[in-house]
Structure prediction request, 83 residues.
Amino acid sequence: MLEDIFKFSKKITLWGSSNVVNKWVQFRGNAINPNSVTENIHLMEDIVNEMRKDLGIKKTKKGNLIMAFLINDIKEKMKEVKK
Prediction:
């Protein structure tokens, strides 16, 4: 997984919009803090939505959990984190 994150980081510097890059920097900065899990899930959702916006695709509503495409049990995980 770390290898994928490093590869993505390299690519995003070339093709990511400034909004995507800024959100990615926040995401990476929070990654070392175990208390930032919920915030990072929301940041990843923001990153995906920013990329969709760049492609001319409408953003999804905040909290719509577009991350369910990437994380199979996202709804259960979000409930666990809130406890």
Notes: Residues 52 and 58 are 7 Å apart (CA to CA).
